[in-house]
Fold each of these.
Amino acid sequence: MKIGILGGGQLAQMLAQAGAPLGMEFMFLCPSEEACAAPLGQHLCNDFDDATALDRLRRWADVATFEFENVPASVIEILAAHTRVYPPARALAVAQDRLREKQTFDSLEIPTPAYTAVDSQEQLSQAVGRLGLPAVLKTRTQGYDGKGQTVLKQQADLLSAWERLGGVPLILEAFVPFERELSIIAVRSAKGETRCYCLSENHHRDGILRLALSRCGDPLQDMAERYVQRLLQNLDYVGTLALELFQTEHGLLANEIAPRVHNSGHWSIEGAACSQFENHLRAVSGLPLGDTSLVQPAAMVNLIGRLPDLGALTAVPGAFPHIYGKSERAGRKLGHVTLTADGPAIDAEFQKRLASLLRLTGEMQLATTMERLSAA
């Protein structure tokens, strides 16, 4: 099976690593000369809308997919006219526009934070008057890892926020006093078969995911599965999808979707019977879906900006480093480490080892929290 992937970053890299044992071949269309997935297949170093490159990819590939949601929709339409492309274009269109995304949640009776569209400075003032402060102002498109958004805490913040983000369509969302940030990752085949992974509990700093913990048996699992199943069916989805959620005192609120494999599910490589990456490939290529059951409790720690000493990382029992081969740069995801538990539950020993990993990566506050939990 020949798989064409739009994008050549770490998600494409991990897809190719998962597909190699299945005998799959890969071609990556990515404009970066430093695409870290390039050594795992053919690399077309061209813009996404390069007609010659697109023609070459669609002639070569049996099926095409994408590793991130900022691929131009026109590119998907071009490919879809000539070859199978999953996930479908509609899912991409929904994920690319935060307003359309929230409206989709509404239509499926999936609760969200209060929101309103903002297209002018006057509308921003009116929206703040309705939703109150604090609130979060976001660009409707091109936002990820905390980019394209800002928190408004007081009236004085409105002008600077508009000057920084204005000029493009925006959305204002009520600030949610959440108890936890969660995500559920699910996969659906072209035949409508679906599987869900256990919930991930996510911890962010500066808008970037730092830690994801598998939460098998979480009491909110069933509610999260109901919401993601509605999305999969409504979008006629094929592939892996992530739904990000806020846990509040009133239940779960949907934040956003990612129509692709997702950072919060990286622990599934070692922690689940079949990883999110392999299951995405199974879905788009027409193979039966794999078992999403948790093999052992696991956590994922992102390596951001700089790489810790590899010897120190591998010295932590149960740690599995994944280094992407990128050059160091502030805020850049350079790799991740999966930590697996020895037994069927997350215990004090696991939390101690997780604290050690977090300290190696500079996440001192999270490390202190884990140490406190291990001592409780």
Amino acid sequence: MSDSAHASGLPAPASGRVDLLVVAGEHSGDEHAARMVRQLLASQPGLRVCALGGPRLAAAGAQLLRDLTVGSAMGFAVVAKLAHYRRLIADIVQWIGRHRPRAVCFVDSSGLNLRIAQGLMDRGFAAKAGGPTRLLYYISPQIWASRPGRRFQMSRHLDGLAAIFPFEPACYADTRLPVEFVGHPFVAPDYAAPVAFDPAGPVLLLPGSRRQVVARIFPLLLEAFRQSGTTRPAVVLYPGEEIRGVLQAAAPPPNVTLWRTGGDSAPVRAAAVLTVSGTMSMHCALAGIPGALTYRTDALTYALGRLLVNVDHIGIANLLLGEAMYPEFIQGAATPAALAAELRACLENPARRERTRLLAEQLRALLSRPAGASAAGWLERQLRA
């Protein structure tokens, strides 16, 4: 192992130099960053790109220094992992200081990435601290939902930000941070959606991707599905084997199939959906699958959340549209009977299906990138600055 690798715990650039380091700490970030890097290298094949991410970034042409997607974990909430991530942040900061990339592009994962940016400022490696490396960010933290004050620190540290929601540039209008809307990756022409609408398809049940949420929500969804009286089967999408065990503990009946997401399989086609808020609910909304959204947590967590989060809707599609494309049933309102009634309406009411289709078209139009804009184009311009 080279002295450079020993110095930071990360391997040195294979080419001896690096133009861009991409940091994507989760599976979704790895996927979105890979599309951006692939397009960037297609137009600038001589660029040297390293990455802390996952297998998709490696396949896109970046030298993968470490796979951060193993365990799907930017788990800053887990005390046992704090020491690990402190060491990781220190390694990344030291590596950047040693190899001096022209730019670092952080992708989502604000818990990790904003701490790295702070470390680069403290050590004088960032451009805004007089160093050689521009700090860029793709997929903004949701400052419009919680902790809006982060935008001022981001403005002090970052040189540019690419946003995926059209309203986000205005959220930074009172800072000096240049923010550009580049379109949402889910509506990119080459994006393969994991779900699709089929009026003859099964019911989709989406209890989430975190063990505690799944354990609390899945029995509710199962009972709502039972009370709906539908003779259709149901499909439950889950992201990993640790979640499968939680699902099986709820003893789903034989007409409920568990299906692991990921890979390059064909989209799951569904007639209606009951879902928690999150990424998959956005996929369903863009696909025009009629449904309802639900969430339950303990009373204390909910009360704290209401203090920290300032939004009219918890579903991002509802928030973007300014109306309830997916009616929301939260806490005490989240009953099997209420969700069962929504499910019957989705399956039996043609007007409900048509309204969902029209709202899906509006949502796609809202999220489509402006003419000539793309994440790769934004990054290419930043590297020339």
Amino acid sequence: MRSRDSLLRLHRFRTEDVRRQVADMDLMIQDLMRKHDELDAHVKAEEGRTGISDPNNVNYSMAAKSVRSRRDNILRTVAELRDQHDAMKDKLKDEESELRKVELLVEKEGGSLKPAPLAPPPGAMIGHAIAR
């Protein structure tokens, strides 16, 4: 029985760990998109200041060219993170499924199944202060 409880705790830990990783990736993507928007506004302001919006123009601002490059790198990073995020969400579904199987097994054997704490969905706690 003790091994079943240990197995249950292990699966709960794994599930919560993957859930935390998914939430962390959500936050990273949101932060990067915010930074992208700031850089995009900076590029537009620089192009408006110089009156040249064609990056192939010889007189195109070096500052705008540099910021444009950073902005494009952020978009590539976000695309890679989204791919990883999707894979991590699939892993979370698998972990939750395994956890349910173990919980049912422990419950079926008459074990003391303690209810798992309900975790908020990824990103649900954004902007909320933690109460002490």
Amino acid sequence: MKQLKYFAVLFMTVALLSSFGCASTATKESTGEYFDDSVVTTKVKDALFSESTLKSSEINVETYKGIVQLSGFVSSQANMDKAVEIASGVKGVQSVKNDMQKK
């Protein structure tokens, strides 16, 4: 009976410690957040690709905890503004950081 108690305590300890591996920290995303950010990135890229006035291949998209970063070189300020507007309208985007530069 004592062995069963020790085994149960050991099992619970291992289960608790392994759950910390999926938790997020200030500098690391949890597994769920990483998946959510991947979905947001894909949606933003799709929205940018669907806009015929933009060359979506010029714009790089990265997402971290719902904050989308746009980078790359675009041909005009109007294209920058349009890309930020499109990215801001995507569901799941908390804010957009514009690191794009004009050619």
